[in-house]
Structures are given as structure tokens and as C-alpha cells.
What we know:
Layout: H1 6-28, H2 31-35, E1 38-46, E2 49-51, H3 53-64, E3 70-84, E4 87-99, E5 105-119, E6 122-136, H4 167-171
Parallel strand pairs: 1-6
Antiparallel strand pairs: 1-2, 3-4, 4-5, 5-6
Amino acid sequence: xxxxxxxxxxARAQILDCIHRYCRGVDRLDEELILSxxxxxxxxxxxxxxxxxxxxxxxxxxxxxxxFHVSQHHITNHLVLDLHEDIAHTESYWFVxxxxxxxxxxLSGGRYVDRFERREGEWRIxxxxxxxxxxxxxxxxxxxxxxxxxxxxxxDPSYTRPLGLPEALAAG
Length: 172
């Protein structure tokens, strides 16, 4: 078994935090949070899209804003495949649940293959290739939605400091 030094462990944790920050940003439609995962000169190849982070966010918001009721990105297996000084290559398996309307879900999964760079002490994505490896849409009869309306912006309770009971529960 090989030993891992503290600097490598810290780098791996910071890279995984960045990937999680990206997913949270997409699910909350939080442009600032999404962009914080990329270096300004990064390139994202995301299926039919290839371009800069701001251009990616613009087309993402156009696609998601009126179309999807729910978005949940999940990261499963994550590996730092190669880490040398200020460059890391990673592979992260993901699956996402998207709700088109009150009756339809779209499920898909794949991998983020990323090149991270540490600049000025911060790890961010420099180049991303998104591979979609499967997609499914369960029949409407198999989909059940709770009566709650998901929040997809900064009014979500996860942004509240200090966290307390939602107003509806506190008043009740």
C-alpha cells in the first residue's frame, strides 16, 4: 500500500469540493456558484455544447429555467487519476434526476472527465468533457411528486445563515 502525503489529501478534498460546488450551482441555478468551479479561461465540452463557462451557464439556464421543475445531480465514484504539482486529471461518475413537469422524470448518468489546475492556491476546472452514458424516462404512472415546490435559487434553505425552521413550519 502506498502512502499519501497531506498535501495530496488536501488537493483531492479541494477538487471534490469543487465538483460538488458545481453540482449544487446547477441544481440551484446559481450562476456565481457554477462559475466558481471553473477557471475563467476554461473550456467545457458538454454534449452538443463546447465553450466558455459563461456561455455554458447561459445555455444551461435557457434549457433548464422554464423546462425543468427539479434538478438533482449526484456524484458517485470519484477518482483523481493523476496529480502532479498544479495539474490533476479526474473522473467523476454522476447521475442526474430532472423533472420536466409534474408527471415526467428524466434520469441520466455518465462521467465528468476533468483537468483541474491549481492557480493562486485554488483548484478549479480548466477543461471538462461530459460523457452521457445512459438516459431513461420512467412512465408517468411511476412518478410521484411531493406537494412541495422545490426551490431552484438562492432562496433555498441551504443558503440561510443561521439555518432555522422554514417560515411555513415556524408559523404553523
